[in-house]
Amino acid sequence: MSEVITLKSKTREITGKAVSELRKRGIMPAVLYGHAVKPVNLEVDYAVFEKVFQKAGESTLVDLIVDDKQPVKVLIQDYQLEPRTSRLSHVDFHQVRMDEKLRTEIVLKFIGEAPIVKEQSGVLVTNIHEIEVECLPTALVHEIEVDITTLKTFEDVIHVSDLAIPADIKVLTAATEVVMLAQPPRSEQELADLEQKPEAPVVEAAPVVDTEKADSEASKE
Question: Domains in the chain and their CATH numbers?
Fold first, then answer.
């Protein structure tokens, strides 16, 4: 039986720009929503959530406790990062119905050692790191393993259709989608050409996301 992951939260009254004070105290703003569920503003302990997120990711059910009430089953559906520090700044919890199928993404975990790398110094190229699926919440798995020991020549390719998927999970990503392949190592001439290649022009940075505004908009839902 898989481990039950639990997270405590509290109803949040503070919204808008004032949530910056919460973040300074190690508290992260959050929102709970779902099918036929009225959105609720929440707050969670940052350090505790970070540990839960490392375990659950975005495809493992979490028992979310709100104000000491009975836990509800949720998925960490979305999160925001501070542009400058990449620190988590906001998270959305999607409350799921256990009898209703949902769509989400499951992370791919690459295992084994590719013979093409060991024997011919091949360079592995990963095309996708997760696949989109549809299933009941009870059928979700934390990750799907990809055995890369099948990559023995430069002609070998791992497609989505090659993955070992549990029978009760429907894969929405195209079966022909390439997951991983191997390319020959670059020659000394190619490496030299790359070193002589002029640097790319500096591109103006994208505008900074206003996380305070994002949180304020979420609270109005």
Answer: 6-96 (2.40.240.10), 103-193 (2.170.120.20)
